[in-house]
Amino acid sequence: MKFLNESGCPAELFRGEIQPGTMHTSLLARVRYRLSRIGDSWALTALDGSDALKDIRREQTKDDYGTIEPDLPFPRVATDVICLADAQSYSGPTGVINVKLIAGPYTMSLRIYGERVWERRANGLNISPPTLIEQLPITYKYAFGGKAPTSYGELPWMANPIGKGFYLSADEAAKHPLPNIENPDHLLAQWDDRPAPMGFAPYPSTWSLRQLKTTTTDSEHGGLTLHPEEGMFDRAHPRLSGKKVQPGDPVIITGTSIAPKVAFTIPPCPFEMELRLGNEHWRKILDLEEILLDLRSGIVDLSYRKLCKYSFVPHQVRTTILLLCPQIA
Questions:
Q1: Among residues 211, 234, 322, 242, which one has the least CA distance to residue 274?
Q2: Which residues pair with 30 in a beta bridge?
Q3: DSSP tag of 142
Q4: Dihedral angle at the C-alpha atoms of 235, 238, 239, 245, nearest 10 degrees?
Q5: Phi-psi category of 73—alpha, beta or left, where left has phi over 0 and alpha has psi -120 to 50?
Q6: pLDDT under 70 in the chain at which residues?
Q7: What is the distance between the alpha carbons of residues 233 and 217, in angstroms, rounded to a whole number?
Q8: Is the pTM above the cut of 0.85?
Q9: Could you give the CA distance from residue 129 to residue 176 in angstroms, rounded to a whole number?
């Protein structure tokens, strides 16, 4: 299969034979936008020249906000939404900041607290008042999780081993911190509550919220069964993956350092794939696979993918062409 990229944007055609005689291709394309403020409104402006993306993600990138994995041939279930941002109070120092992200069918709200500890009182352990904060990175370091000491070494909370607030006894919890980031619908009440970690950052495939969806074990006979169709290659938090975000859907983020409120709509897909097999031709619009919002720099990356399969015919001329949609070109 020959690949021609006539879009001017970074793209890759992954090819392979999964079943004998049946070829599979996975076409991935990316485009970068700047999030621009125009009065009280926001808009996405496609970047070109030196500011535009030069390639798909070939290498892993990692910083304090999370790990962005390289692009793979394997598709996500639907659309991942990943947001790198700081919670921000716009009314001065406060003990609580509320943050919310809406993207098409997704909604995630976060309650951001200042530092708190479990205080021992006559009725047991209670939560201390939060210290005052103005800004906090929205990372899993501040969500529920962490590692608890045992006589055999540290025991990680596998849904988020880098977080805070996971304890195995009341004595261990006393005078020690709670997570800063919580689900406002399921706030911690007892030291031994075990909530799912919350956040907008990329969620590692090795952590248990994803593993519980994509693997099953046979307790009677042993062995592990993988279920890639349940999101094995998804990258976002499980609550921000598995559903489709469509062109025209709203994206709204409140309570972050870029602005009290950011709102824009998903633009039309700029890409069209033309598949040529011998004398037959097809054209298809790509599907939105990932929305990566880096609100630290005001950059929005959108990635698109289209899968296809076809029977192998010896000596057949086969070509995939990536084009800009007519309304974009």
A1: 322
A2: 303
A3: G
A4: 40
A5: alpha
A6: 221, 327-329
A7: 19
A8: yes
A9: 13
